[in-house]
Design brief:
Helix 3 packs across helix 4. With 131 residues, the protein is of the alpha/beta class. Strands 1, 2, 3, 4, 5 and 6 form a 6-stranded mixed beta sheet that branches. Helices cover 37% and strands 24% of the residues. It has one domain: 2-Layer Sandwich (Nucleotidyltransferase, domain 5), CATH 3.30.420.10.
Length: 131
Amino acid sequence: MNICAIELKSNYAVIVVFKENKYIDLKTKKIVLEDDENQNSIREFCNQFLVFLEQEKIEKIVIKKRAKKGNFAGGAVTFKIEGLIQLNPLCSVDLLSSQTISAYEKKNLIEYPTNLKKYQEQAYLTLLSFL
């Protein structure tokens, strides 16, 4: 199964992909929403994301949940991006809480692939926690 894990930050989605339970180092590591108030920009983000899903034959998406309130609450743009991702017609989307990811990290020794970028670590952990 081809799985894509995503961490949403500011105005972009950080992406990590597993194919057949193996990390794949792709050229596309994040997809950016340039202007969340511009309809063409939103359409461009959606199109880029759908093309990515089709090219990589993604069957499942897992997103790291963001808090809705408090100090670590997600911004409005990340919630908009999450909604756009959930509306994709190609595959199902699951949300994974930070607590679940932290619990997994505490119970397991995590070895990061050498070609994984530092900013992709949370998306990678999200994927491992889901598996």
